[in-house]
Design brief:
Layout (H helix, E strand, L loop, with lengths): L1 H5 L10 H25 L7 H21 L3 H17 L5 H18 L3 H21 L9 E7 L6 H11 E11 L6 E9 L5 H8 L5 E8 L7
Antiparallel strand pairs: 1-3, 1-4, 2-3
Length: 228
């Protein structure tokens, strides 16, 4: 097996496996560091978890590109041509989707340039990183799992009743929005809840509808909302 890996690349310049692994590992660690920095310093209007994930995968893809090129001008122009096709013929709305496409292009080029070991190891490393990102939900900054919107028809001073109810179902609740209509008879409320048991969400909805003064209850899972 070791001999197969050592001589798997039949290109003019074979792959140095230790160098390849070090390069991909370093690319992963550097991407991880930059991703963490982005997560904790981001102050824009919207925050995308998939973009953070892309920050980790992208350096690995670029490292593979640079190893495949090996100062080969023909391969470099071929890479630009393939990337141009992806850019102008397909519109990908998700950043992570684009990274997946680029990764597959690079792996395909590695196979096409007879760098079979590079393609094999690169595929395993990229797959591991993608599974790691999916399994750990890396990049998510949500500290709640349910968005609850409702109308409160009783006086605002009686909201303590509603707060006490939410405390029974949620480890943490945050009143994100409160708007009283011009007539003053209805108060529109929006809560962010970290549930004690996410599987009992429907039970919460059923019970809150029975509370006097609560109308028009709607809910949404936090992951369905664009992160802010």
């Amino acid at each position: 097996m070791e001999q197969l890996l050592n001589f798997g690349d039949t290109a003019p310049i074979p792959t140095d496996i230790p160098t390849l692994l070090i390069a991909l590992l370093l690319a992963f660690l550097c991407g991880q560091l930059i991703a963490w920095i982005y997560m904790y310093t981001h102050t824009g209007l919207s925050y995308s978890r998939t973009f953070v994930s892309s920050l980790i995968i992208l350096p690995i893809t670029v490292a593979l590109v640079m190893m495949i090129l090996d100062n080969n001008l023909v391969t470099a122009f071929s890479l630009l041509a393939v990337f141009a096709i992806v850019r102008f013929r397909n519109v990908l709305r998700d950043t992570l989707d684009t990274v997946y496409i680029l990764s597959l292009i690079v792996i395909g080029m590695a196979c096409g340039t007879q760098k079979f070991t590079t393609a094999l190891i690169g595929t395993f490393v990229a797959s591991f990183v993608m599974m790691y990102i999916w399994y750990t939900n890396f990049g998510a900054r949500q500290r709640y799992d349910l968005i609850l919107n409702l109308n409160w028809t009783r006086p605002v001073s009686a909201l303590q009743t509603l707060d006490n109810f939410l405390k029974r179902h949620a480890l943490k609740s945050k009143l994100a929005s409160q708007h009283t209509t011009q007539e003053g008879s209805v108060t529109q409320l929006s809560y962010r809840l970290l549930l004690r048991d996410p599987n009992r969400k429907q039970e919460l909805i059923d019970e809150i509808n029975k509370i006097s003064g609560v109308e028009k209850v709607t809910s949404m899972a936090a992951e369905d909302e664009s992160e802010i």
